[in-house]
Amino acid sequence: MAAGRGTRMQVLVGPEEGARNFALRRFVMEEGGGIPFHTNRVEHEQYVLRGRARIRIGEETHEVGPDDSLYIPAGTPHSYEVTEGPFEFVCVVPNEPDEIRIVEEG
Question: Which of 18, 33, 49, 100 has the smallest set of CB atoms within 10 Å of its CB?
Fold first, then answer.
């Protein structure tokens, strides 16, 4: 899956920099951007730098903004909808093979 609609992703620290266990990534989503409901094989830890978004994690929806942090367990469906852009956050993930699957919302 690409990073998402109106979304850019940059690896800040990862295996190429010698990080053996985790990668630190930066996401920037433009106004109206987002990422569809999906699952990942790996967990995510995220910290919001700027902007605002509605993030659905499983059955819960969170309105997040600067200085908010999130934990998304492995295998849990989640999505992003920018409500005030640009929305920027950093994300830590394990350096393990990931599998991303789009989930149909019902």
Answer: 18
Tell me: the pLDDT tens digits for 50-69? 999 999 999 999 999 999 99
Report the domain count for the chain: 1
Domain membership flag for residue 72: yes
N- to C-terminal Cα separation, the chain: 21
| C-alpha to C-alpha distance for 79 and 21, rounded to whole angstroms | 25
Give the predicted TM-score (pTM) of the model.
0.92
CA 72 to chain centre: 9
Q: Give 13's contacts (C-beta < 8 A, 6+ positions apart).
A: 19, 23, 24
- The answer, yes or no, to whether residue 18 has pLDDT greater than 60, is yes
Rounded to whole angstroms, the Cα distance separating 96 from 21 reads 8
